[in-house]
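User: Here's a structure from my thesis project, written as structure tokens. My advisor, Dr. K., wants to see whether a designed sequence matches the one we expressed. Can you design one independently, without my sequence as a hint?
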């Protein structure tokens, strides 16, 4: 029986990024297929966040090409969580998902329960810890349907239980045919993680 090759969700060819007249990286190319998870590594200032923002269409492409052969459907959650401090967790989720995936209170409560925030639905974000705030932002993963996840530092401020929970969500997403590109200074224990090390591209330019 012939195995079917998973479709390519994201194709990057000879990509470069310049910020403040400085080349962060160049010549970057990789393909993300359904069921794959990619870890973008590198020291601070190497361009990890800039790369994710380019992939999400939030930064211009200085050189190279980014394409979505199957369908351009992605969910980007940045390191800056875009939460409103004076809104509740529930209200923030309603605001963040309104344009792409309008949801009900029941759906948002369910998403918050999945990220460990049952009982905090109507708490002001200003009153939550840094880890809880990140859980509010990550609750979008359980509300918005997109095959490709782009997550910038999703493990930041999370305790060991939170990191374990996230790895469960990530694995489930991959099993359903999704894919993910993320940045982090921490490694995941999920099998088959592919690595993009921007420090090697930096060394190649010296």
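Assistant: Designed independently from the structure alone:
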């Amino acid at each position: 029986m012939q195995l079917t090759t998973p479709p390519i969700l994201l194709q990057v060819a000879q990509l470069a990024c310049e910020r403040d007249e400085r080349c962060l990286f160049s010549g970057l190319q990789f393909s993300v297929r359904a069921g794959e998870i990619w870890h973008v590594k590198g020291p601070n200032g190497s361009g990890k966040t800039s790369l994710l923002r380019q992939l999400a269409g939030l930064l211009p492409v200085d050189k190279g090409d980014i394409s979505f052969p199957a369908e351009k459907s992605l969910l980007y959650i940045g390191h800056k969580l875009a939460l409103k401090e004076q809104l509740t967790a529930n209200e923030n989720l309603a605001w963040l998902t309104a344009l792409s995936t309008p949801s009900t209170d029941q759906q948002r409560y369910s998403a918050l329960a999945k990220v460990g925030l049952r009982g905090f639905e109507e708490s002001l974000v200003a009153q939550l810890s840094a880890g809880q705030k990140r859980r509010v932002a990550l609750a979008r993963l359980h509300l918005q349907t997109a095959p490709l996840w782009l997550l910038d530092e999703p493990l930041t401020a999370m305790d060991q239980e939170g990191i374990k929970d996230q790895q469960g969500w990530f694995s489930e997403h991959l099993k359903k045919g999704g894919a993910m590109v993320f940045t982090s200074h921490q490694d995941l224990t999920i099998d088959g993680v592919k690595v993009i090390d921007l420090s090697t591209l930096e060394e190649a330019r010296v």
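When you compare it with your expressed construct, this may help: Helices lie at 48-55, 89-97, 105-114, 130-138, 160-175, 198-205.
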